[in-house]
Amino acid sequence: MLKGKVEEEHVFMPPRHVHGMTELKRDAFTKSINVPALKVKKEIINRLMKPLKQIALQRPGLKRVMEDPEDENKRLIILDPCQISSADSFDDSIKIVLGQFGVDLQVYTHNLELTYENFKTEEILRAVLPEGQDVTSSFSRVGHIAHMNLREHQLPYRYLVGQVIIDKNPGVTSVVNKTNIIDNAYRNFQMELLAGEDNMITKVKENGFTYEFDFSKVYWNPRLGTEHNRVVALLKAEDIVFDVFAGVGPFAIPAAKKNCAVLANDLNPESCKWLVHNCKLNKVDRRVKTFSLDGRDFILGPLKDELNKISTDVGNSSVHIIMNLPALAIDFLDAFKNLLDKASNNNLPTVHCYGFSKDDNPAKDIKEKAESVLGVSLEGHCCVHQVRNVAPNKEMMCISFQLPAEVLYKEHSQFQVSVIPEENEPKPKRIRTDPSVQE
């Protein structure tokens, strides 16, 4: 008999003997539990399931309707033991529905066998890993690849974790764990294959575009799709876009599709190879010129040359410079100092520069870092957008501003020079930010 409602964590916890398992043995997860059930004539089952949906048992791979071993003309509707223990557990609306169909309110006890397939990922990992430790079941999905960042206490169980992720997530055929931080010039990282096939060439879709690449050799973050879309929305047809750290093309390709002229660069030759491939794949290769240079060399070379060409005849077009290398991009801003000889028009490029901040006021921090490198104040001439929280107390930010003439041009007498205030001068007003940024 059911003695009362039970807690979900208790009834749906795998058997205790799986604790500490490092090699996945699926048969070891089988257990039997008692669950409540209603006996219902089989001809009314379909009409009853919708009103009973909220109290019917919902578990992975488990049927909610089973044959009644005592009566072939009836079926058992398996109920959630966390909600139902007796007829008194039904609310009035359920009682009315059951009465309309002539269903006996008696709650029967049914012995149910649970197997590995019926447990959720977190339930399995919580049962296996050390008690009191964090359970990580989250991952980044990159095509068929699940990318995990396991903590040290989880590493002895990493192969089991990888196999569970494959089992419980259709379409995932490879699971990898990052084994170091992104600390090299190519922005990729070492990874270990935990489970599945050793195939890192994958395909993803983002904002209607398709990208293919070798995930083990390039940088791709599936959490930046909204940011890519936000910046591209700022562009209009015939704008000129310089993507200094282009990766495999998530800014460059949508910009080109919008009929912008794009110069895209990435130091990593693998990224550049897949950038060229993805431009062809998305049919924008005629509007994108690609380079594989250090970011500073790209600014001092192709970007400078192109700015000199277009400085006298840009019409209504705007110039945008995207610098998405959060760990270092701000340090590259000094490459714009005195980049061009003489101003020929007032159409200054707009820079979208990314950075990380651990400051209590990340918007102010990013602004001050950019000002320090440029040597001028951006007060009243910039906008800071909070992109995402990367880690506890670490934010990814984007600062957008028109490149000051006194920075870009060697001769800029026609422009008013703005200098960063000294300590004895009034402090600048608060930075203008997107509404999403909390000061």
Description:
- 22% of the residues lie in helices and 24% in strands.
- It has 439 residues and is of the alpha/beta class.
- The protein has a seven-stranded mixed sheet, sandwiched between helices. A four-stranded antiparallel sheet has the order 2-3-1-4, with no helix packed on it. Strands 5-6-7-8 form a four-stranded mixed sheet, with helices on one face.
- 35% of the residues are buried.
Level of helix content? 10-25%
Strand order of the largest sheet: 13-12-11-14-16-18-17
Shape: elongated
Main beta sheet strand tally, sense and closure = 7 strands, mixed
Structural class, by secondary structure, is alpha/beta
CA radius of gyration: 30 Å
**Span between termini:** 58 Å
Can you tell me the residue ranges where pLDDT is under 50 for at least 5 consecutive residues?
Answer: 413-439
Question: Based on DSSP secondary structure assignment, what is the total number of beta strands?
Answer: 19
Quote the average pLDDT.
89
Query: How do the helices and strands follow one another from N- to C-terminus?
Result: HEHEEHEHEEHEEEEHEHEHEHEEEHEEHE
What's the helix count?
11
Strand content: 15-25%
